[in-house]
Amino acid sequence: MTEEQKMLAGEPYCPRDPDLLDYYHRSRSLLKEFHALDSRDLTGRARVLGSLFRYLGEGAWIEAPFACEYGRYIAIGRNTFVNVNCVFADNNFITIGDDVLIGPAVQIYTAGHPLSPEERVNPPGSPGPYVTTGKPVAIGHKCWIGGGVVLLPGVTVGDGCTIG
To answer: What are the C-alpha distances in Å from 159 to residues 75, 99, 139, 141, 144?
Structure first.
């Protein structure tokens, strides 16, 4: 099983795997390009975000600055609005429905670590310095996620919910 397969299966994986690092650096390049675009350059924004995300629905709007881990595990539905300073740590799938409003500084985390330091920190010689797992996060249609909300790994927000 590859480290990516382990990550998406919710098993412990090494985030410093060469393939995952390639995905990470690719997302950094695309985010840098996105942040350099004029907000009126709708074609350029759609092109860059379409390359970054697994899916970007028609009419979706992402405000800069925006940060994510890989981008490739994020699907954003049509007419969804993501406000400034949001962080989507997509170490597993993040699926956001249609017609969703996401306020400023919302953080969506799919990565987790054991609470115990003895379990969290790997011994020297291990493939990675710490244990990381991932669980997906899903947000249904027509939701409003208020500013500053933090969604943790494994959370599902049902259709029409308001969180804030």
So the answer is: 16, 10, 7, 5, 10
Task: Dig out the tokens for 151 from the structure.
Answer: 């969604």
* Nearest Cα to Cα of residue 121 among 132, 134, 136: 132
Contact between residue 101 and residue 144 where contact means Cβ atoms under 8 Å apart: yes
Of 13-17, 64-68, 126-130, which gets the smallest average pLDDT?
126-130
The answer to whether 51 and 32 are in contact (CB under 8 A) is no
- Report which DSSP code applies to 146: -
- Examine the pLDDT at 77 and tell me if it is beyond 90: yes
Average pLDDT over residues 20-44: 98
Which residues are designated catalytic?
Answer: 113
Q: What are phi and psi of 113, to 5 degrees?
A: -140, 150
* Residue 84, domain CATH: 2.160.10.10
What is the number of structural domains in the chain? 1
| H or E stretch covering 21 | helix 18-36
State the residue range of the domain holding 145.
3-163
Q: Measured between alpha carbons, how far is 73 from 101 in angstroms, rounded to an integer?
A: 19
Residue identified by tokens 């699926």 is 95
